[in-house]
What does this fold into?
Amino acid sequence: MTVPVSATPAPRRAFPHATYLIKELERAVRVRIDEIVQPLRLTATQYTALSVLSWHPGMSSAQLARRSFVSPQAANEMVSVLSRRGLIRRNVANEGGRALWIFLTALGERTVSRCDELVDAVESRLFAGATRREEAQFRAMLRTCREAIQVGAPPAKSAKRVVRHSRVRPATTSTRS
It folds into this structure.
């Protein structure tokens, strides 16, 4: 005997949805970063742009927009503001085109370094209840989820992933193991 489809219970969904929890965390982190960089007369978005430039100097405004999660128009406005403040400089591309490559100035480098210290403190608080292993697993899971959701991305082949850190976290006096 077959069971009619309508009689089959729907799979239980976890509430709240993971996507809701991710957005909730993203929003809380964004608000906190806005608070800590405000005394430096920056927004979280401007800090993101400066941070991106510290790792990828010489980007175009369009590239910076994509990496900073803003529209090209918003990036152009942000670049103008950061340039007027002396945090970034723009150089004409050598290829003779109209493109301008964006770099941090010495002041920009000092500013992003100070912001990184503040953000590191936020991350320490974020992971205060986790072991180093759990933190690494969380980071790996975020990367896995990001890759899985990207349009056109091939499906993940394995749950095992090598955790690669592009930044070295400063040593802390934390008692995490």
Q: What stands out?
A: The first helix runs from residue 18 to 37. Confidence is low (pLDDT under 50) at residues 158-177. The domain at 16-149 is CATH 1.10.10.10 (Arc Repressor Mutant, subunit A).
